Amino acid sequence: MHQLVEQFIKLKSPKFDGRGDLEGALLWMEELEKAFEVLGCTEEEKVTLAVYQLQGNANDWWKATRGVIFPAGTAQTWAMFVEAFNGKYFSESAREQKLSEFMRLWQGQRTVDQYEAEFARLSKFTPKMVEDPIDRARRFRDGLKPDLRSQMISLNLRGYNEIYDRA
After folding, report:
1. Is the alpha carbon torsion for 112, 113, 116, 118 positive or negative?
2. Which of 123, 120, 109, 167 lies closest to 141 in space, CA to CA?
3. Which of 17, 30, 49, 105 has its CA at 20 to 30 Å from residue 163's CA atom?
4. What number is the average pLDDT over the span 72-84?
5. How far is C-alpha 138 from the chain's CA centre?
6. pTM of the model
7. Is 16 helix (H, G, I), strand (E, B) or coil?
């Protein structure tokens, strides 16, 4: 474990203090999962390393809820940690707000690249809406400016990258 912690620290994974918004928490989880993949961590190691990165309010939350999430004798799994973390830092109202932002997203005065960047950012919060490649491409296409959208429809483009590249 000592060697694993040293390797993990060298990757400079971010700390999480529990303050900030939904996107900060999501980014923290994404960065941790990249490190875990590189290091080939077990479920229990993932929990241990994630907890090591908690600071301030987040560390206080963990100390107060650890025994509820993992009662004595219970194996620590990453899935259980993620579920508890999401329950704390991804409130239902915050998720609904991001879903609403995603649903209202359209290109407007943005360039296609700016629109795509915002689409990618918000789609992280609505995975079920974009998990199917055709739905993802259709949703992206439908948010384009009307003239671009009609061109994409007339070209019968179906793939997300295909539509993005052509737009």
Report:
1. negative
2. 167
3. 30
4. 92
5. 21
6. 0.70
7. strand
Amino acid (one-letter) located at 23: E
The amino acid that residue 70 corresponds to is: F
Q: Which tokens belong to 124?
A: 């992280």
Say which residue the tokens 């229990």 belong to: 44
**pLDDT single digits (tens) 24-70:** 888 899 999 999 999 999 999 999 999 999 999 999 999 999 999 99
CA gap 42, 25 in Å, rounded: 22
Identify whether the C-beta of residue 38 lies closer than 8 Å to the C-beta of residue 31. no
Backbone angles phi, psi at 54, to 5 degrees: -80, 140
Three-state DSSP at 108 gives coil
Q: Where are the domains of the chain?
A: 2-89, 93-166
Beta bridge partners of 54: 16
Classify 117 as helix, strand or coil. helix
CA dihedral 80, 82, 65, 99 (to 10 degrees): -130
Neighbours of 165 (CB within 10 A): 10
135-154 pLDDT, tens digit each? 999 999 999 999 999 999 99
